[in-house]
User: What shape does this take?
Amino acid sequence: MKPDTALIHHDYQPPGDFASPQIAVHKASSVFFPDVKAMRERNWLDKTGYTYGLHGTPTTFTLEERICQLEGAKHCVLLPSGLAALAQVNLALLKTGDHILIPDNAYGPLKTLAECELQQWGISHDYYNPMDPSSLADRVQSNTRLVWLEAPGSVTLEFPDLPALVNVCRDKAVLTALDNTWGAGVAFQPFDFMLHTSNDHRGVDVCVHALTKYPSGGGDVLMGSVTTCRDDLARSLKLSHMRLGFGVAGNDAELVLRSLPSMSLRYKTQDDTCRQLAAWCLHQTAFAQVLHPAIVGSPGHAHWCDLCVGGVAADAKVHSGGAAASLLSLRFDPAITPAQVDVFCNALKLFKLGFSWAGPISLVVPYDLTKMRQNAPSDLLQGGFVRLAIGLESAEDLIADLAQALQAMP
Ligand SMILES: *Cc1c(COP(=O)(O)O)cnc(C)c1O
Assistant: This one.
């Protein structure tokens, strides 16, 4: 054998039982089979062996299992972003002629996907008011196949009565898919929150999680997951995932695996800081409304109490119990002009202008709700609107930053 070939086909095999806290990064397109029979017999749909890098490696299988553990699911597929995960559920479960329902306050790109790709493929949609289960019931048609849910809404943070919405879907025999990025498997159990049900399935049918957010926590990875407890749906999701060629890279999967052990600590710290900021913002006259599910009077606060605090009532203006993630939205007094709100955003120093959330650095995004909502309550559309995503900085420093930016407004 020539040296260059020997460099490739070296016969040294490291011992197999290397045990350390962190799973190894396995990267592959090719996976070797010992013989032709083994190659022909390998079933890539189960996790008892490996077929091709796209269908799984020890690293991605481990991450899938950990996400199942986090969310109380049985099956998981990984995708290259949270948005790809939202798209995958639609691609796997819908066909031309189907109709879907999306909450009016949903993650914006899901609405755009419905309005562009899905519409063009003959899959129609309507928006429902997630704060009114009868609005959902009224919009279910004979061809409605899937209802999207989000708790709370992405930007305006209204918390819906999730069990009531799921009950409407059950009554009408329509599938439910929850974008669970906010709850993250920490705030409530997406497959086990229905208290009064004779059904085996005590939650939603399918769950999407932007692992980009809490599971990564670094602001440096894009990834998404789709989970389910239903074997029939898992099969459709996996087959379509394979046919479409979605997969994730070993290095990225390893970054998420490395961050998962600290996820609940990061969630809790950001949640605590966020509530301190919410309490401070309630006292600022510049803000007409502070939106956060743990604030008494914030839309859907009672539903959040039921789902995330077991119905325990608030002990203060900002409830101290349960879990409530790290997003906080502010509606400015309508007397403050949009240009002044821009000055506020530009003046922030610790809060960076940037999309996404749940990373170490606090972020701010100004939104124009009039372009985003079909059926928003009219008061919500009065005045400038910003969403804050709280990072891991100290609450005191973040409050000082907000205070100086308010001062900077002309
Ligand atoms: C960020 C986000 C997504 C999309 O995740 P990406 O990985 O950025 O594509 C989906 N849903 C919600 C609620 C999100 O916040």
